[in-house]
Predict the structure of ABC transporter ATP-binding protein.
Amino acid sequence: MNSILDIRKLTRQHGTGDQAVYALRGVDLAVATGELVAVMGPSGSGKSTLLTCAGGLDQPTSGEILIDGNDITTLSRNSVAALRRRRIGYVFQDFNLIPALTAAENVALPLELDGARARTARKYAEAALLEVAIPELADRFPDDMSGGQRQRVAIARAIVGERRLLLADEPTGALDSDTGEAVLQLLRDRCDQHGIGGVLVTHDARHAAWADRVVYLRDGVLVGQAGPLPEADVLLEAR
Ligand SMILES: Nc1ncnc2c1ncn2[C@@H]1O[C@H](COP(=O)(O)OP(=O)(O)OP(=O)(O)O)[C@@H](O)[C@H]1O
């Protein structure tokens, strides 16, 4: 299997001794290119920790995290930051857009932080906004957009350039159900058509049904996994 993400025996402990809390305990998870994996589990089971570790935003206590074959737990902070800017896109429930920047400026930001020229970054940003079907909003500010439009901008920022891994933490949590489904369709299309690997954290089984595979976390342990949920067939017929 050609894995974009390969997590091995991942443990994340907070505190020590009597105070120790294990957010993750020995989790293994591989995500192939073109695959979308949903992560489900009760509140506090470690879903967000799994995503932040996979994206290099949090450091595990032990274990390996290979992104495109590079173990980020052994890389310097600068190297992890560079890999994150170039290869990993994050989508959050609350969009995390910068209000003072237009849609195109928000999307171009990771490329500019990575040293791209403003004009080149703008060109890529416009292409990404076209891919999420809102090219006409390039010069609009987040406060003048609907929630669904903001999430599309956030997805454009997550896919701009040459990103290979898309990490989405409850990306539909702030959206109504139709808008949420449209956002999931976008994530699905990215994986299908562009060979990106995706991890989707969700509480909602209907949303998990967009994934190729669902894994379940409980108390920091991966307790099971399933193929596409039965609802997927219903959704496919409805699409
Ligand atoms: N900085 C921290 N210090 C101590 N404990 C933490 C810290 N961050 C997370 N935890 C604990 O780790 C466990 C996993 O948290 P995490 O946020 O990953 O769960 P989650 O499944 O994403 O929850 P939710 O669905 O509520 O977002 C929880 O018990 C949480 O309290």
